[in-house]
Amino acid sequence: MRVLAAMSGGVDSAVAAARAVEAGHDVVGVHLALSRMPGTLRTGSRGCCTIEDSMDAQRAANVIGIPYYVWDFSERFKLDVVDDFIAEYSAGRTPNPCMRCNERIKFAALLEKALSLGFDAVCTGHYATILTDADGNRELHRSAAWAKDQSYVLGVLTTEQLAHAMFPLGATPSKAEVRAEAAARGLAVAAKPDSHDICFISDGDTRGWLSDHVEHAPGSIVDRDGAVVGSHDGAVGFTVGQRRGLALGVPDAGGRPRFVLEVRPRTNEVVVGPREALALARISGERFSWAGLPPADPTTPFRCEVQIRAHADPVPAEAFVHTEGGRSELVVVPDAPLIGVSPGQTAVVYVGTRVLGQCTIDRTVSAVPATVG
């Protein structure tokens, strides 16, 4: 097959490209230029997709012996990831830009261009596995290494995208093994630290970055009954479950710490309350998709597990598709309440090790009735 290897400049994508070559594929390496800020360099393990990363990717391609190109996706990245990130926070939601990047850049824009150029598949260094059922249908599954599993961030992939995806690291038991293999292959990125945080916020200060990109004004911090218990300089950047930085002047009646329960951009209010009020009995979202074949009848509740963060433990649940007034949503009812989940986050649904699908959370239902505080 003709394979386009997406090379981020890290060790995982470099080893994945090398394995694709060893498997006998005709491989071409490509690095995605996602920023038009020349001179931007990685600081420690923060950030990614920088000039430094591009050079690391090129050196790895040279060692592997494959052609290498840099494609400018900066405008698409700004529109589909950065601007979306700003819009979601402005609407009081907590977005996951890595999900949007996988959905709209790596497995939409990149795959679309790859197919138009005659490539059969896009190869990445994600830790996930693609299996084929008895009828030849492709399914996305967790990787062999639970601690490094990245199937969650791939939950946005569709059936068509899975048909052209390749994850050579899926069966690798540990990241240490990948680094050892990279060193044995003579790849200089063998000891390169992993990137963390949001790639376009390299210093890790999300709230500070948002303050420069989103209009903000002072407002009130209120309890669940609407009583004012404090003030803020700008609601943008507060996240559900946050405790630090509230600086409240009115204590909870029972002396309990308060947590952010909701952000209301229309009224510029931040709602706070006790930790138990963070427990959710139900989540749902209209923006949902299936990674492979959907359930035979998704309107009938089915057993599953739901994961709401990349490194969270999966929670047993029941899920189904509800349609009313011409609008459909994926509804997830966990066996035990979920804690600190915010609209804008992604809920990925698993059946065993298989990624069945996902939704961007639009609505939540608290497990605890509103009370004072």
Automatic annotation (TrEMBL):
The active site is at C101, C199. GO terms for molecular function: ATP binding; tRNA binding; tRNA-uridine 2-sulfurtransferase activity. Its EC number is 2.8.1.13. GO terms for biological process: tRNA wobble position uridine thiolation. Pfam families: tRNA_Me_trans, tRNA_Me_trans_C, tRNA_Me_trans_M. GO terms for cellular component: cytoplasm. Residues 148-150 are annotated as: Interaction with tRNA. The record marks H126, Q345 as: Interaction with tRNA. HAMAP family: tRNA_thiouridyl_MnmA (MF_00144). This is tRNA-specific 2-thiouridylase MnmA. The gene is mnmA.
